[in-house]
Every structure is written in C-alpha cells, then in structure tokens.
Specification:
The chain has one helix at 3-29. By secondary structure, it is an all-alpha fold.
Length: 30
C-alpha cells in the first residue's frame, strides 16, 4: 500500500471520528 493511500485512510478515519464525536455531543444536548 502506498503512503498516500494510508494517509487518505487516516484522514477518512479522523473525519469519521469527528462526526461521531459531534453526533454524541448533539445527542447529549437534546
């Protein structure tokens, strides 16, 4: 696997984790 592919996967995971965090915060604030 090329380095850029790994970096893309990492960026996707980070974005997903951020989305999940935002969702949890949103749900807790309801």
């Amino acid at each position: 696997m090329s380095q850029s592919n790994l970096e893309k996967q990492e960026a996707k995971l980070k974005a997903l984790n951020q989305k999940i965090k935002d969702e949890k915060i949103r749900l807790n604030n309801v």
